[in-house]
Design goal:
single chain; alpha/beta; 17 helices; CAP10; transferase; transferase activity; O-Glucosyltr/Glycosyltrsf_90; Glycosyl transferase CAP10 domain-containing protein
Length: 583
């Protein structure tokens, strides 16, 4: 039936069959599954329902290591039976609710797109901007229109610009041009007033640790000026309520909006890719969905390749990758089964210290052991259900191939399948399932777009942050959500395998969303919503504090009593790349 909706009698039959499905999954499809690491998680009520976390690294009591419990070799079939049955019913319910919420009057195909959540703010002044800078380590900037010189000046909150300058040069040029283009009457030299706009360009806002704490009133963040955050923003708006999610300073984000405002052309980055390439700027890989039964020919694995990288390290400095000497070696000489799971269990003992990407590696390691066991028992066509591995890592600050890293190879020797071959997006298009694991800013800036476009289904990693376009997407419409700690990834995979029609429908809706992003209609809509609208609100709401009446904004910043503010660039806003470095 169209849209994946079932008649009531059909759904009742489906629910009655869940027990049989679960038994079948355990006995016959179990060959694809890794063991589930069962853990109780806390629910955060601060997140929107569709981006709610069941795991907050800072909300748990146990922060340190626990001694691992080694596998006895007995499969917990009864527990898994109950878990699978509950999960499949839960996902049936979630999908039904999502489908019901998304039905309505016929519109253009972009009825799948809903307006992103706006950040509401009233009038603000320079003092509110200065207060905001006190909460940041660095990468927050005053973007000042100086009417006397008829230029846009950029001032950093700390001396010099070792952090974020390459990004702010690009951002400042785009925004300066956008302001002149869309509000020409507001920026007319000495006949106009100065204006101060706050900008941040960290992967996520680089705020100080005390500003995450409610006991410190989040550094009085409710009084901050609006901040254009050209990176990921926190979903918990109590942390930084005035942060406005803006397109990131890398392709296909801010550079594509710049191309649009300059030429009314959609950038190649969001167009179908014509040849095999690893570069996002060469276009998007959509894959061939015109083939008959293309879905059934995709490889049924959850695939991810990427770099071993930190996760929101300013907010969670305690989270880290496993260390062989401290996390594995102490247990190497203990008696343990010969199934190869002892090192996996040892790393599980790290608890909430373990980075999310490494949780995916553990799921892969477990899945590979089970697949090997089934092959040894005569099931030769078995593949692991999970294939999350590192193609790259950092060694002494340099990005290198994971296969060349000694620490990675050491972990491989004890059964941790961390090293994966490098795969381009054309090769990704052969797989049925993908995941966009978050990194330094809590998200993956290009991965979500690239993987939504692919023929397969995206398991979207729901974390503490989001990007500028995330609120346009809906769970169970464009993607299937998974928790930050990946504790439900296996169950979501199983649901997709047992519901191929619904899984394919979600995958195709995600692909259609990316095609819309790369259309003239989509680009015009997004440029208006994510560039013009926030700039209009800011231009309308900036007020000059009484104490600075008659003083230029630059003079006011210099005489504010705060030392260390430093000009890093200035821009005319009249041409592309109009910013020059300040002396």
């Amino acid at each position: 039936m169209e849209g994946g909706r079932r008649r009531p009698w059909s759904r009742r039959l489906t629910l009655l069959a869940l027990a049989a499905v679960a038994v079948s999954l355990i006995l016959s499809v179990r060959v694809h599954r890794g063991l589930i690491h069962d853990r109780t998680h806390n629910k955060s009520t601060l997140h929107p329902d569709h981006r709610r976390l069941l795991f907050d690294p800072k909300s748990v009591e146990r922060k340190g290591r626990t001694k691992p419990v080694h596998s006895t070799g007995n499969s917990p079939l009864q527990n898994e039976f109950e878990l699978i049955g509950q999960s499949l019913q839960s996902y049936e319910s979630e999908l039904a609710q999502a489908t019901h919420a998304q039905t309505g009057p016929a519109m253009s195909h972009m009825s799948v797109i809903q307006a992103a959540k706006d950040v509401k703010f009233g009038s603000y002044d320079l003092n509110a901007g200065i207060l905001a800078t006190e909460a940041f380590h660095y990468t927050i900037f005053f973007f000042v229109y100086d009417s006397k010189s008829d230029t846009f000046r950029v001032w950093h909150n700390v001396p010099g610009c070792d952090h974020g300058c390459a990004r702010i040069y690009r951002i400042a040029s785009v925004i300066a041009y956008a302001l002149r283009k869309n509000f020409p009457g507001r920026f007319k030299g000495p006949d106009s007033d100065d204006i101060v706009i706050m900008m941040s360009c960290g992967d996520a806002p680089r705020i100080k640790s005390r500003c995450y704490d409610k006991a410190n009133d989040y550094c009085h963040s409710s009084k901050f000026a609006p901040i254009l955050q050209f990176g990921s923003v926190y979903i918990d708006t109590e942390i930084l309520p005035s942060a406005i999610a803006m397109p990131m300073p890398v392709r296909p984000h801010i550079p594509c909006f710049d191309e649009w405002q300059l030429s009314r052309q959609v950038c190649q980055d969001l167009q179908p890719r014509s040849a095999m390439s690893d570069r996002i700027r060469d276009g998007i890989v959509f894959g061939d969905t015109r083939r008959k039964n293309y879905w059934d020919k995709l490889i049924p694995q959850v695939l991810w390749r990427g770099t071993d990288f930190a996760y929101l390290h300013l907010k969670h400095p305690e989270m880290r990758p496993p260390n062989y000497k401290t996390d594995i070696l102490p247990f190497e000489n203990e008696a343990h089964p010969t199934d190869g799971r002892w090192a996996i269990n040892a790393i599980h003992g790290m608890g909430e210290l373990l980075l999310p990407r490494w949780r995916g590696v553990l799921l892969t390691s477990e899945a590979e052991i089970e697949a090997r066991e089934y092959r040894e028992s005569g099931n030769s066509n078995v593949i692991p259900w999970c294939n999350i591995k590192f193609s790259h890592c950092y060694d002494k600050g340099e990005k290198v191939l994971a296969i060349d890293n000694a620490k990675m190879k050491h972990l491989e020797r004890v059964g941790i399948s961390a090293i994966g071959e490098r795969l381009n997006m054309t090769e990704h298009a052969n797989y049925k399932y993908h995941i966009d694991l978050g990194g330094g800013g809590g998200t993956t800036w290009t991965g979500t777009i690239e993987k939504l476009a692919l023929p397969g289904l995206l398991f979207h990693h729901v974390t503490e942050t989001k990007d500028w376009f995330h609120d346009l997407l809906r769970p169970w419409k464009h993607y299937v959500p998974v928790k930050t700690d990946l504790s439900d990834l296996k169950q979501k995979f199983m649901w997709a395998e047992e519901n191929p029609k619904e899984a394919r429908q979600i995958a195709e809706a995600g692909t259609e969303f990316i095609r819309w992003m790369g259309s003239e209609e989509g680009m015009e809509s997004m440029y208006s919503q994510f560039i013009v609208d926030p700039l209009r609100d800011i231009v309308r709401n900036y007020k000059v504090p009484p104490r600075y009446e008659g003083m230029s904004a630059i003079d006011a910043i210099q005489n504010s009593g705060h030392e260390g503010f430093h000009e890093v660039t200035w821009c005319t806003g009249r041409i592309k790349n109009s910013c020059d470095k300040s002396s």
